[in-house]
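Reply to dn_fold:

You asked what the input looked like. This is it:
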Amino acid sequence: MTNSELPRTVCIREVGPREGFQILAKVTPIEQRLKLIEALAHADVRQIEVAAFVRVDKVPQMADAEALVAALPQSSSVEYSALYLNTKGFERAERTGRLCNKGWLYSSPSNTFLQANNNTTIEQSIASVPEWIRAFKAHGKRVHGLMISTAFGCELEGQVAPSAVQALAHRFVAACAAHGEQLAELSLADTVGRGTPNSIRECIALLRPLGIPISLHLHDTWGLGLSNVYAALLEGVSIFESSIAGMGGCPFTPGAAGNVATEDIVYLCHSLGIETGIDFERLCDAAELAELVVGAPLPGRVYRARSAERAQRTVKIL
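and this is what came back:
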């Protein structure tokens, strides 16, 4: 592979304000989360997932989702979105009138994960496609994409074969086509961070014949997150979901680390000559703010390296 085969631009979807706070033991005040969202927007991050409309008894940290969305700063350049896992959550999100949600379907090759995370099964998730289509159409939306969680491995069921992901995607493509809809994106989520560069590339290669753009939502539990980003870039993937300073984790998957840090991906892309449209310095400022809000060091490496370098320069000047 040569640089000419890498994407020229990459789209970053920031999920830290949702991923990062849903896993914390205590609910973070809305005011602090809003400051982080504003800092991300100031760094020219254009797509930000700010909350999750899910069961309060399962994820109490997201109980104030409506209040947070209502307080979001007005912006014509930022698309705010939220996670939802069922049609009730989708309806809640739509009632806010402030979000740019697309029509997402959700599934996984792991029945055990689906039952824990979505209270459903593989067969039920496929059978629910008509219900989702009706919900989307009621709000003037079409089906946009399918997110496949635990696409590279599941803590509950072990390694996931790329062929299982391929088979699941084909079934959803067929289910959508039966109702006059088609997928415009396949999002592969490495929910527990089990993916490797080889498994990432193999899975993408199997899905490429579908002709559907592929995006990645990568966690860094086993330390290969950024390597997996690079492997995906070599396969032409140009859409990544990431979390500022590496915040986050899955509340239904004990031990899962946060997403690959947004600033780490941006630094990698810029070093390869790939445009992101994001202000790197301001993004690192946002990562430092995230650390202050959480009150503990976060997994991201680049923002801490940048901070140490600046401190060293200050000492030399003094």
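Residues 3-317 form a domain with the TIM Barrel fold (CATH 3.20.20.70).
Hope that clears it up.
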